[in-house]
């Protein structure tokens, strides 16, 4: 138990360290590229925040949607688009050589790898939610006497076709229409 907590803590620290460093490099590259192309300094930082935090948000949104069984297609496409935008900014700021591009791409690639690892891990299973309004056990201990039903009409009206025949409903127990137990 202690070993698992220590390993988990170390994993979180590594995740935070890599995420922080990759984010700082990516923020800087997006900012510098924006400023180099004629935008004011504050817009450079606004672009950096928008690109990098949007990618983080989308990663978290994918995880939340998977937990609830909702589709993740569009959110996944947006995540890839923002990650590629960050990668493009980093490569554009690099020395124009293969090694310059590889070294500049490391923060975005590290971020993508972390997102993939975090999103592919299965979240801890939540305890099953109790079923609402479960009947009490004593409701089924012994059947209640029911008065005999009068003869049912040969052809009931269409509106009455979904109702139980007269006399079947027990007035001392709640009824749920359409559920057979």
TrEMBL record:
Origin organism lineage: Bacteria, Bacillati, Actinomycetota, Actinomycetes, Micromonosporales
Pfam families: DUF2637 (PF10935)
InterPro entries listed in its UniProt record: DUF2637
Protein keywords: Membrane, Transmembrane, Transmembrane helix
Segments passing through the bilayer: 12-30, 42-60, 72-92, 98-119
Pro residues compositional bias, start-end: 145-156
Region annotation (Disordered) ranges: 125-156
Protein name as catalogued: DUF2637 domain-containing protein
Superkingdom as given in the UniProt entry: Bacteria
Species this chain originates from: Micromonospora orduensis
Keyword Transmembrane helix tagged: yes
């Amino acid at each position: 138990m202690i070993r698992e907590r220590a390993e988990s803590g170390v994993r979180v620290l590594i995740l935070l360290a890599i995420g922080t460093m990759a984010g700082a490099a990516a923020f800087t590259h997006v900012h510098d590229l924006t400023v180099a192309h004629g935008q004011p300094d504050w817009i450079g930082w606004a672009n950096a925040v928008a690109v990098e935090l949007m990618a983080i948000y989308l990663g978290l949104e994918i995880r939340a949607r998977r937990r609830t069984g909702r589709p993740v297609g569009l959110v996944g496409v947006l995540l890839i688009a923002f990650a590629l935008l960050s990668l493009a900014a980093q490569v554009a700021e690099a020395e124009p050589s293969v090694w310059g591009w590889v070294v500049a791409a490391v923060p975005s690639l590290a971020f993508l790898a972390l997102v993939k690892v975090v999103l592919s891990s299965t979240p801890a299973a939540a305890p099953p939610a109790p079923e609402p309004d479960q009947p009490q056990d004593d409701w089924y201990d012994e059947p209640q006497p029911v008065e005999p039903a009068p003869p049912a009409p040969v052809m009931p009206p269409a509106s009455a076709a979904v109702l139980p025949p007269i006399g079947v409903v027990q007035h001392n127990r709640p009824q749920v229409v359409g559920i057979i137990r």
